[in-house]
Amino acid sequence: MKTHWHTIIIGAGAAGLFAAPYAAKAGATLVIDHAKKPGEKIRISGGGRCNFTNMYAEPKNFVGQNPHFHKSALARFSQWDFVELVDQAGIAWHEKTLGQLFCDGKSTQIVEMLTTRLAQAGAEMSMETAVNAVTQIEDGFRLDTSKGSFTCQNLVISTGGKSIPKMGATGFAYDVARQFGHKIIETNAGLVPFTFPDGRFASISGVSLPVRVWNDRASFEEAMLFTHRGLSGPSILQISSYWQPGEAVHIDLIHGLDLREILRAQRQSEGRRQLSTELSRHLPGRLVEHLTTEWAGRFDLTERLADQSDKALDALLGQLSDWEVIPSGTEGYRTAEVTLGGVSTDGLDSKSMMSKTIPGLYFIGECVDVTGWLGGFNFQWAWASAHAAGRHI
Ligand code: FDA
């Protein structure tokens, strides 16, 4: 294998694979990865069907210290640009919900599309290659790897975040960034289930319902799922990216239901009915059973509807529509879909993703302090940031 390259990309994930064909237009390009196969997270994404982008992707769907940084790359490579490539590759797709686009078939079709584009552009891949050291040299960089030393003019770091260490996720990008004087925004697990002590929801594990979940910084209307360890489901994963340890999360269990009118009307016509029986007609029965016990000190859901004053009904509705819970933590990187924080955008040029201080050094994809919501936004960031760097090279 050649030892000198115009561009070396470390990380054959979504961003690295996508950047390679663009970089290859400027000169010989090599993609290095320590894993056996490229694009493993793409393969497992979206339940095996890869939610590769979102029809409604816009800057507000991304979290990071600088709310403007990602605008440039996303504007210059939009979700429709990626859809065009998917169409050209003959991959059938569909919208599942909320603009989320999935493959009709397997997510490996996306990996194949990326590796085919890479090969057609003349870029090469070196898998199962560990990078031991990165050194800046006079006209670029030297990499000491398990397969020998390589030099390059441009070095692209696309080794992703820390989520799912079992799949080979490492903090490599942050180490390289620090080595070259870049600041790291503290990293945390994002898009991750919440945990609660003492198996608080274990008895209703598996119950799910549509809710609105919010805190001071964000609000999401999607499904919520009770689990053995706590709370999960799309709405919880979304709010987890805006959560700080120790904070409360608010949950509207009756979102979209006009329960006030219903309960008052039923009190007239079905006064002998128990509150819990009536609630079970609108909410999952197992959840109502659980709440009957959990809220017993404040609300007696075994009482009859007829015995409820307007004030009592309003207090109950207030509790159902703003249930405040304080998670003890999250499931962490073990199950997190993404890593919040990362290489600070302060040190990067938003148009090219190149370091402002080390010419030829680029950071793209999840390792950068730009994190998307659940729903195809993280891949869109991988494509857009890769495109920005690849085109600049
Ligand atoms: P990515 O993680 O894809 O690639 C990094 C690569 O670098 C890997 O190949 C890794 O082996 C390699 N690497 C790491 N350390 C290295 C080292 N030290 N030396 C050499 N190589 C190294 N997003 C979305 O938009 N839609 C979805 O459907 C999903 N679904 C989903 C499911 C699950 C279970 C997870 C965990 C994540 C998702 N995501 C998602 C998030 C999405 O997968 C993620 O944001 C992108 O893959 C990030 O792309 P990157 O290329 O930045 O990193």
From TrEMBL:
Residues 6-391 form the RsdA/BaiN/AoA(So)-like Rossmann fold-like domain. Its EC number is 1.5.3.1. GO terms for molecular function: sarcosine oxidase activity. Keywords: FAD, Flavoprotein, Oxidoreductase. It comes from the Bacteria. The keyword Cell division does not apply. Residues 189-338 form the RsdA/BaiN/AoA(So)-like insert domain. Its cofactor is FAD. NCBIfam families: aminoacetone oxidase family FAD-binding enzyme. This is Monomeric sarcosine oxidase. It comes from Aliiroseovarius pelagivivens. The lineage of its organism: Bacteria, Pseudomonadati, Pseudomonadota, Alphaproteobacteria, Rhodobacterales. The gene is soxA_3.
